[in-house]
What we know:
Blueprint: H1 2-23, E1 36-42, E2 51-58, H2 63-72, E3 80-87, E4 111-117, E5 123-127
Parallel strand pairs: 2-3
Antiparallel strand pairs: 1-2, 3-4, 4-5
Amino acid sequence: MKLKHVLWVTLPVLLIYVFWETFTQPGVNDLKGDFQEVSFIRNENNTGPVQRIYAVSVSDTLWSEMEKYGKLMPHTKYGTTKVFFFATGTSSPEELNLEPDHFTNDFKPNCLASFEKNGMGTISFKKYPFGK
Length: 132
């Protein structure tokens, strides 16, 4: 009889803990820097590697926050996720291409940083990837 009472007390506590952990995970909105997605493109390939490319505006050059933002973006096994960061108020690409040089050269001087997570899960974060 005592085991039954312990289970009735433990089960609700465990369920509350699981729900709490599920719904209080950190997200993009918790980061400093006022990140705004400017443009996004994804290839239509659902049977092979998925490519995701983002252009994001950010209000400050908080490098660690940019890297955290990149790590929070969706990633598919064997796929590639790339994020290009631009300062808010500067020109940034409204359209991206899947081919390398994902946007025109006009926007490259405005790119503050780039984040890439490749198919093997290796992360690359570069400050001023196209020069200052």
